[in-house]
Amino acid sequence: MSRAARERYSLRPTAQLRRRKLVNHLMEAIGTIAALAAVAVLGLVVWAVAKRGAGALNRDFFTELPPTFGETGGGIANSIAGSIVIVLVATAMALPIGVLVAIYLNELAAPRIRRSIGLVLDVLNGLPSIVIGIFVFGLLVIGHGQAAWKASFALAIIMLPLVARATQEVLALVPDALREGSLALGVSRWRTTLGVVVPTALGGIFTGATLAVARAAGETAPLLFVSSVTTSQVSWDPKQALQSIPLTIFEFLESPNPEDHEKAWAAALVLMTFVLVLSLLSKAFLARSRRKLAR
Amino acid sequence: MTAPAATPSRPLRLSTRSFGDRLGDLSLYGLTAGTAFGAVALVVLLVYELFDQAWPAIEKFGLGFVTSHAWDPVKTKFGALDFIWGTAYTSLLAVVLAAPLSIAIALFLSELAPRLVRDVIGALVEMLAAIPSVVIGLWGVFVLGPFLHDHLDSFLDRTLGWTPFFSGGVPATGNGLLTAVIVLTIMIIPITASISRELFLAVPDELEEGALALGLTRWEMIRGVVLPYTRGGLVAAVILGLGRAVGEAIAVTQVIGGLLGIHVSLFQSGDTLASRIAAQYQGAATNIQVAALVYLALILLLISLVTNVAAQLIVRRFEFQRTGGA
């Protein structure tokens, strides 16, 4: 065989192929590094919060009130109670309304209306939470004073599109055969919807709601103007302005006192653990109920 | 005469539904439609309410508010230009940093990683989005800021000090535009990355396999098939990330330094629309200052409405193309 032919039929990669493979490896490496970097940032944040927060975390932190000026120790019991009240009331507002909106969009509305209202929900979901806070401040607080339920209202506006979209998604997965079977048996539309379709999707609806709770629990901006002038007592009354964990972190951080910084880290650890566990659990359940419905 | 048998006296009823069922259908329809249109009305009310509350400031400062520098509660002079600049500058820089990284992450997750790795790392990236912004801000102030100040700032000053981005010497603290941009980048990446991943996963396998079968390397397949196929959706994913950055208040308030002024150098402090509003929550004393704050919120609302609606319309058009309008 001549040299030219040998080159021609050689299985050794040409220079061009080597270059293409090099570029390919380079790009693959960039993608891998970027993904690892994102995970590393998550690790850095979680590690910093866990390390710095664990120090100030003890039983008093959950059961005691913040210390008065000049004292040490104490905890954030009032913020924890306030956060629980605010988020529970917000869920009580957003969950039923979000589910009703989703039932309308998925079961009853004409396609065109479904698309338009879906767009409105997505836009609502993208609005800055501080703008929603200012809206509730203008609507309910100016001239009337702050209250925890008004903060709940602001959080409910944030949760509504999340609940509605998640519910709509699982409702869409309910097989049409179930609806048709029920209707063919002479069952009316409303009983089909409430008795067959919604119960089938119930698991997905609740996990969607949990995800919305996780998001709402960490929101600070809507609370600033609506429930920030508070007493440092443990109160469960939604008609009062109540302190909350995110706001406590925000305020402790601006404090010149290093002990407050430590408490901010501990509060961040509590909040982050709550939010991450909740969103992990709900995502796992969501994946499961989706699989179950899609079968 | 044999006439045809008379029709039965009972006419055929087209609807045999009971009264209760008709009532039930009607009330379910009314209730759900009411809440759905109520949600739409809420958005309209939101826009109206912000206009209403900002009206004293709109009347007093007019559109000149947008182009005016001042923020002086004592002399009741208010303007939004510094904050609009701060918002635009930090958000755009964060998007420029985040977009390629997010797309690289999404490509890794959708095209490269084995299934198990994809699920685990994908979940971790989404967890990054779940961390409350106040916690990211706390980390920014006490960990990221000092780190930048101690280790990176002097290096940037030495190597890139001649560019306008890092001019003016090493800053005294870790807080400033640079920290804000990095914090925003961290907050955008999970959003843009997870939307992009969904887009990439939706590219038909036949197209990808066809490209590979023609002898293309994986990167050539991505560049020639995946990216062109998802272009519109990627633009929307980036815009949605931008919308998040524009609206982020808490974390930015904590790390940006909160000073007036229009600076290009990232070593300087600044302020954004959202962070100025958040920072003033206890300080708004006079009616006109409250109105000016709401005016800022109104500008923020308009910016985020435009970016959001644009992004959503692009996403919808993309889905429409992909599904052939189904």
Task: Write up this protein.
The complex is a heterodimer of chains A (295) and B (326). In chain A, 77% of the residues lie in helices and 0% in strands. Chain A contains 12 helices and no strands. The termini of chain A are far apart. Chain B has a single domain (82-323), classed as MetI-like (MetI-like fold), CATH 1.10.3720.10. Helices cover 71% and strands 1% of the residues of chain B. The interface between A and B is large, with 86 and 91 residues.
Order of helices and strands of chain A: HHHHHHHHHHHH
DSSP helix fraction of chain B: over 70%
How many H/I helices of chain A? 12
> Radius of gyration of chain A in whole Å, from Cα?
26 Å
Question: In the CATH classification, which architecture of the largest domain in chain A applies?
Answer: Orthogonal Bundle
Question: In the CATH hierarchy, what is the architecture of chain B at level 2?
Answer: Orthogonal Bundle
Quote the average pLDDT of chain B: 86
Tell me the layout of helices and strands.
The complex is a heterodimer of chains A (295) and B (326).
Chain A: H1 3-8, H2 15-54, H3 59-63, H4 77-108, H5 111-126, H6 129-141, H7 148-173, H8 176-184, H9 189-217, H10 221-224, H11 245-254, H12 258-294
Chain B: H1 19-61, E1 71-72, E2 77-78, H2 81-112, H3 115-130, H4 133-160, H5 177-201, H6 205-213, H7 218-229, H8 231-247, H9 250-255, H10 273-279, H11 287-323
Antiparallel strand pairs in B: 1-2
Helix pairs in contact in B: 1-11, 2-3, 2-5, 2-8, 3-5, 4-5, 5-8, 6-7, 8-11, 10-11
Give a short overview.
The complex is a heterodimer of chains A (295) and B (326). Chain A has 295 residues and is mainly α.
